[in-house]
Design a protein that fits this description.
Layout: H1 25-41, H2 47-54, H3 58-86, H4 88-108, H5 113-141, H6 153-178, H7 188-201, H8 214-225, H9 228-237, H10 239-255, H11 264-281, H12 283-289, H13 296-318, H14 321-349, H15 355-366, H16 371-379, H17 385-409
Length: 412
């Protein structure tokens, strides 16, 4: 009988030590995070396919994002502390397997809406496990990579997550537009990428030995969660990370779908890629703006979100595809800047034994932003879309004013 796979086996992946630095270890963990991010967002351009094949309403389609969040948020909160205690790899490997299972369910869901919902739920669970453990893993491996040392961790997390978020929908959308079997073929690249990611993860150094006290970690985590910096700055910022991204990815393209004809799928795929590209290109500016105790980065990040929402309101009122493109570029930049800002704050607040858990709490709150497209779709019967987006922009402006003011007056 073949012995069970030991995810901590030394020949596969020695633990990080000062004597054996590995410049690219963070990238191997990052590819795993990107692979799961690919699987999480490849679904976005295929919404048009499912609306056509299954006759789903706009609200039902947007509800699939809610199911994703329903699986993701508990998985974040559970798997982050688990990775702190038992190791990053022990959480990441099952997450990769679950991400593959989600794609298989989504393939089957092309003819059964129940399987579609199940696939999105499993994708959320996989994402929660991968993002909580993977974000901490990348940050811990970043000192070995030089070029910015530990401060590079949050930027690397943002880039790898965003690369997956953008690459998945781009490839899936283009395949759905021009390849046969638009509800099957777009998922196949993700399954192939997962195999590569699994091999790389098994060769990535473990950073947690599992020897820390769970009670101590829990106590430290609670102290950090109660700190003024977390409550008054990080928590208000967090929902705008994916609130801005989800409006760009899941909501704005549908506003001009009727004007695009057969090019709608390709347009959605390109829109998703541009959102991710903007989130990556903002990284150098975010790095320069990030100064401990300063409000510069959070001010610029939320200002971009506000500006993107205002342009989105104009795009909704005029139904102009060009304005949608401008809006998603600004919202994408806002997403990238907000994500770097939030992760950088978490890294400063967390102790090594609570990094995964505190990152998970932050990400869980940030993913509440995925509810925005669904809420907007439901509220369209109350007010015009442009007006609703102006209301959301006003909320973002209030958050901007609050967090900038509180940044100067809070420490930890």
């Amino acid at each position: 009988m073949t012995p069970p796979l030991d995810l901590d086996t030394a020949p596969l992946a020695p633990r990080v030590s000062a004597g054996t630095p590995d410049r690219w270890a963070w990238l191997r963990a990052g590819i795993a995070v990107a692979a799961v991010g690919w699987g999480a967002n490849q679904f976005a351009p295929l919404l048009l396919v499912y609306r056509s094949q299954l006759g789903l309403s706009a609200a039902t389609v947007e509800a699939t994002f809610g199911l994703y969040a329903l699986g993701l948020i508990p998985a974040l909160l559970v798997c982050g502390p688990l990775s702190d205690r038992f190791g990053r790899r022990r959480v990441m490997v099952p997450a990769l397997v679950a991400s593959g299972a989600a794609s298989v369910l989504l393939i089957a869901g092309g003819s059964a809406v129940g399987l579609l919902f199940a696939g999105r739920l499993v994708a959320g669970i996989a994402s929660g496990a991968a993002f909580s453990s993977g974000a901490a893993w990348i940050k811990e491996l970043s000192p070995a990579g030089g070029a910015g040392g530990r401060s590079a961790g949050p930027r690397r997390v943002t880039v790898t997550m965003t690369a997956g978020f953008g690459g998945g929908p781009l490839v899936a959308g283009l395949l759905a537009q021009w390849a046969p079997s638009p509800a099957v073929v777009p998922y196949l690249p993700h399954l192939a990428l997962l195999v590569v990611a699994l091999v790389l993860v098994l060769r990535t150094p473990e950073t947690r030995t599992g020897g820390s006290s769970a009670v101590h970690a829990r106590q430290v985590g609670l102290a950090e969660l109660r700190g003024p910096r977390f409550r008054s700055v990080v928590l208000p910022l967090a929902p705008w990370v994916f609130g801005s991204a989800s409006i760009a990815l899941a909501y704005l393209p549908s506003l001009v779908e009727h004007k695009l004809g057969h090019a709608a799928l390709a347009f959605t795929a390109v829109i998703t890629m541009l959102t991710a590209l903007a989130g990556i290109l903002i990284q150098p500016l975010a790095r320069r703006l990030d100064v401990p105790g300063s409000s510069r980065l959070i001010g610029v990040a939320l200002s971009l979100v506000c500006a993107g929402l205002l342009v989105s309101a104009g795009a909704a009122a005029t139904e102009q595809p060009a304005l949608v493109v401008v809006a998603i570029l600004v919202l994408g930049a806002g997403y990238g800047a907000c994500q770097v800002c939030g992760l950088q704050e978490i890294q400063r607040l967390a102790q090594p034994e609570t990094l995964g858990g505190l990152t998970a709490v932050y990400q869980a709150v940030s993913y509440l932003g995925f509810a925005l497209p669904f809420l907007l779709a439901v509220a369209v019967h109350v007010a015009p879309t442009g007006v609703l987006l102006l209301v959301v922009a006003a909320l973002a402006m209030i958050t901007l004013a609050w967090t900038v003011r509180r940044t100067a007056g809070s420490s930890t």
